[in-house]
Write a structure and sequence with these properties.
alpha/beta; globular
Length: 219
């Protein structure tokens, strides 16, 4: 088996995908440009550290995850959509732990190209991806009968299709590296519990939960 169900970061939910080495698997394509990265002065060998890419790390769960993983010794790639200042503040917290941080903007409504952000961050931090945490998310507060197709597509792209493509890129890199890695998809209680006005969000999170389980079976 390529994956242990339920393995992953401390506290990760069951079904976290854990890619294992698979000889001959292709590596993901490199990104189009490298975001600026500033090494932490206290780290004498930054390239040797494992690398985590965390989407939506400008605030909330994403920021807390970035800081915690930096405390554990990982260099951190950070994406943001609308809060560049928040992302830079997260990066400073990471660097205060003696780790490196790289920051880039990612707009998951512009797929598939937006997923290249993972390659950009990995390349800026030495070429590895050891952990991917998909935290980016969006939703609606609109009754079902008032929703349009564009509303549905926007939420599904950000909350489901984006993690799908980012997970593929990360898994291919992890397999090519030969020593595995961890992929964590952040879902929600609304994966199981419906909420008025949140039809696209509930559908996306339900899909993401099952996608994670399939990834765990296949990788």
């Amino acid at each position: 088996k390529a994956v242990r169900r339920g393995a992953g970061l401390p506290g990760a939910a069951p079904g976290t995908a854990v890619p294992r080495p698979c000889p001959g698997a292709p590596a993901a394509a490199h990104g189009r440009r490298a975001p600026q990265e500033v090494p932490a002065m206290s780290d004498p060998t930054p390239a040797a550290a494992p690398v985590a890419v965390i989407t939506g790390a400008d605030s909330g769960i994403g920021r807390a995850t970035a800081v915690r993983l930096a405390e554990a010794g990982l260099d951190i790639g950070i994406t943001w959509h609308s809060d560049e200042k928040g992302a830079e503040e997260t990066a400073e917290e990471v660097r205060s732990q003696g780790r490196r941080a790289a920051v880039t903007r990612m707009d998951l409504t512009r797929l598939p190209g937006a997923a290249d952000a993972l390659d950009e961050l990995a390349d800026a931090l030495g070429g590895r991806v050891d952990v991917l945490v998909n935290c980016s998310g969006t939703g609606t507060a609109t009754p079902y009968l008032d929703l349009g197709l564009d509303d549905l597509r926007r939420v599904l792209d950000v909350d489901l299709a984006g993690p799908f493509l980012l997970g593929q890129k990360a898994a291919r890199r992890m397999i090519a590296q030969g020593d595995g890695g961890r992929i964590v998809n952040v879902t929600s209680v609304h994966e199981h519990q419906p909420r008025v006005g949140a039809a696209p969000y509930c559908a996306a999170k339900g899909g993401l939960g099952l996608l994670t389980q399939v990834m765990a079976l296949e990788l």
